[in-house]
Amino acid sequence: MPKNKHINNIITLAIFIVAAWFFASCSSAKLLDDGKYELVKNKIEINTKKINKSDIELYIKHRPAKSSIFKKKELVTLDTELVEKSKSNIKIYVNELGYYSNNVSDTIIYNKNKATVVYRIEAFEPFKINNMYYEIADKNIREFIFSDSLNTKIKQGSVLSTENLEAERERITANLRNNGYFNFNKTYIMFRASDTSAGKKIVDIKMIIENPSKIDSLGSRVYYNHKQYRIKDVYIFTRADASRVLREPRFGQGLDTLKLDNMNLIYRKPQNIDEDLFIRTNLITQNDIYNEQNVNQTNSNFANLNLFRTQRIEFEEIDDTDIDGEFSYLSCHIYLLPLTIQGYDLGLEISTNSSELWGISPTIGYIHRNFLKGAERFELNLSGMYQFRIGNKQGYKKSIEFGINTSLNIPKFLMPVQIKYFQKNIPQTRFAANYLHQRRNIYTRTIAGLSFGYEWNSSDFSRFTLNLIELKSVQLKNISQDFYTKISKDPYVRSLYENYFSLGLSTTFTHTNQLETYTKSTHYFRVNFDIAGNVMNLFNTLMKKDADGKHIILNTRYSQFARVDATFTRNIIIDKNNKLVYRLFAGVGRAYGNSISLPFEKMFYAGGANSMRGWQVRTIGPGSAERDTIFLIPNQVADFRLEFNAELRFKVVWLLEGAVFFDAGNIWTLNKDDNRKGARFEFNTFFKTIATNTGIGARFNINNLFTIRIDWGFRIHDPALPNHRFVKVKDWFSGDNNSIHFAINYPF
After folding, report:
1. pTM for this model (two decimals)
2. Which residue from 677, 657, 655 is spatially nearest to 668, judged by alpha carbons?
3. I need a labelling partner for 422 at 20 to 30 A (CA). Which of 121, 258, 280, 582 fits?
4. Could you report the per-residue pLDDT of 413-444, keeping only the tens digit for each?
5. Backbone dihedral angles phi then psi of residue 70, each to the nearest 5 degrees
6. Residue 345 CA to its chain's centroid (Å)
7. Residue 198 CB contacts under 8 Å (≥ 6 apart), including other chains
8. Distances from the Cα of 465 to the Cα of 87, 353, 460, 521, angstroms
9. According to DSSP H, which parts of 226-334 are helical?
């Protein structure tokens, strides 16, 4: 089989250029002056397991340098003054934990011109809290605190720590701000401790909540009670710079005002958003007591509509009180800046290997964020795939498929009964339809599906999807006689290529902290669960049976199965130019009842630009089984998959990023009816059939909008080879031992 010499030569040249640039850019380490030492390591020793070393590390400001990919580390010279500052930081932190009796020391170990600093922390018995007393000037707040005292974070016998005291301050502040005290903040709360235990380290705590004060006309300080606020009026501004409208009335010319259920909508024509949407999204209503939780939820609700680029909520105090003088008033201003209503997205994935197997997969996406004028999100995605092999003795072979996916998300919970949980958390009702047409030289298959369900955020970082109805129909035709003869010999393989339909449900849970950009690392977790056929199973007595004894409707067998998969991705930021990203994936499915095997579309596969990059898509596994020669275009699938992927990403220059990656994993079958040799998962031996590859990649980050990616993967261990052979480095560039992938955006 001829090699792709042109591609190999181009990439080899590129590697040579990058390598030359690398060695040219690595400057030699600077020499240390006499009497100076390089700081190479910090060690931490603590006499108690109740204090975490990782927490202590955050307070050490004198640290050794880190190496980057294309630049040798700059030496860090030992600075004893910074060591002393680090000790001081550690002592303050240990005090905050409640270990007021402590000793923090250091030892510097010298080895030639290198130095290691050892920080030793001795934390002795902490103070414990005995009684809690209160000194609260404001009668209303005092009554509120007493009524909520059972929920206090400060318990008798708990450690006297800054952390516990701060948690109680934040709890009380949040409760007061959720009950009308708009101007209250935690600086009004103080604690005083008195040791009355005669050396037994037991203290009494007094909580003091001060009143606000001001200087009167005579220059004297006057204290007054905290104000409790109600909402006087609510203004929602769209399609305009609302703050400028308030500053410059003339700028407001041409704006209209619409009264909506105790709120005022100020807009510039045309107003293309359904007014009812604002009523359902906004939780801040006229005459209600100010509630910060409702304010935050309203802000989150508007953000989750995906209709506005920015949203902010501001309050203005009004010089007015109610008849009894009990409440003051606030005017609420909600400023919304809409996104572009329509958008388009293009994608392209290209992959090939040295055996001349090519795959091209273009995608086109369209989105309308306000389809029915109520923030309904309509999406339409077109996809295609053209896979072919040229230059072999079998001639020109190809596989073509195209698909269409469409969905409509409505920001309402469309259900006959209302659920209290969703009164504040706005869910999405989702309708979706899809169609896929596959044409190969051995068969033609069409897949059509409909689904109905809900999506909602359970928190700022977690999201649920529940599809109550998932209906799918799969039809095969134009099956070649030779192909049918081959698959008929194995009932399991034949079951993968039969007409069927399924009726079931699915659910997905995702959690991520990727919005927390301040953190050193981020993570993403997703789990999917599918189940189908159980409802149909209830009506088996009403159905006919086929020749295999399986129940059918309209001469088509229904599918019955369960399937679950989970993904965990972690992004570790090393420094501004380097990051380590890894992903774990596990998935398993099982057919039962009316099915012999999982539906083909629910099977797992591996390989490709976003999986095992030493292989093309669907060319690996299951286990150590040889590739199925029934297919000219690879189509390896199974019902169990394990995979680990990791890559080190680094900045090269300008828009160019580099990557070094490693992938390990495979697919296996759990079905006893699968007769493919080496395909079964065996717990005692499966590790021998784990495939591995390494590789290098180049990524062109186009203004953080999208990334053009090229990955070149080399097989390390190929379980399909005789004796599960490892591939020698010298063989990486021959045969099928490497694959090149062109794709848009990162693999994970």
Report:
1. 0.72
2. 677
3. 258
4. 888 776 666 656 678 999 999 999 999 878 89
5. -110, 15
6. 21
7. none
8. 49, 38, 15, 26
9. 242-247, 275-281, 292-304
